[in-house]
Amino acid sequence: NESVYPSGSRLPSERDLASHFGVSRVTVRQALNSLIQEGVIHSQTGKGHYVYKPKLDQELGFLTSFTEEMHQRGVDPSSKVIHAEIQLAMLEITEHLQITPGTEIVFLQRVRQADNEPIALETAYLPHSICPGIVERFDFSNDSLYKVLREEYACPLIWAKQRMQARLPTPVEQKLIGVNQGSPVLSITRITYSHHNHPVELVRSIYRGDQYELGIILR
């Protein structure tokens, strides 16, 4: 019951639950295991059982920024900027963005948060030529990259190609988004295009599997 045990709250101990409901601890343990299998609660070794927060879901088929997506769901978005700098493009990046090696690119890496809870690590690469001065002019702990590109650089992002895979997080990802070693993450690579079908952004996002899910619309 959400009103009794809200999302993120810790459940009473097995002993207390057994006493409250007048059942054996074996029965309580079976009930808790069923709730774990259903994805309602999760267990933390040495700490107890906690109610899962509802997952944020995204319907594929609509190109939106993280900020817009969170606002649509009534969630307060924020970001912690890890890197915001100009680099010279390596070969792998140039192939995706159709630029030559050594071209200046914007390197923007952020931990994306929903209601101050980290849910994703996002790393974006953009040709600096389409958005000169963007690193110095804007604070991407609050500003939306897509909105800045659209309103300040007349560069709206129109469509994208995206690939997804489930995998285990790296040690760095575990630390930055607060997941355990064995907790799966959703890895998404997206190339976003402008009006003229020119690639504008390469972004690699790592989403927490316990906080995020994707839905696909088939027609």
Automatic annotation (TrEMBL):
Record domain HTH crp-type: where: 1-55
Entry keywords, A to Z: DNA-binding, Transcription, Transcription regulation
Swiss-Prot/TrEMBL GO biological process terms: negative regulation of DNA-templated transcription
UniProt-recorded Gene Ontology molecular function terms: DNA binding; DNA-binding transcription factor activity
PROSITE patterns the record matches: HTH_CRP_2, HTH_GNTR
Domain spans labelled HTH gntR-type: 1-54
PANTHER family: MANNOSYL-D-GLYCERATE TRANSPORT/METABOLISM SYSTEM REPRESSOR MNGR-RELATED (PTHR44846), MANNOSYL-D-GLYCERATE TRANSPORT_METABOLISM SYSTEM REPRESSOR MNGR-RELATED (PTHR44846:SF1)
Name of protein: HTH gntR-type domain-containing protein
Organism: marine sediment metagenome
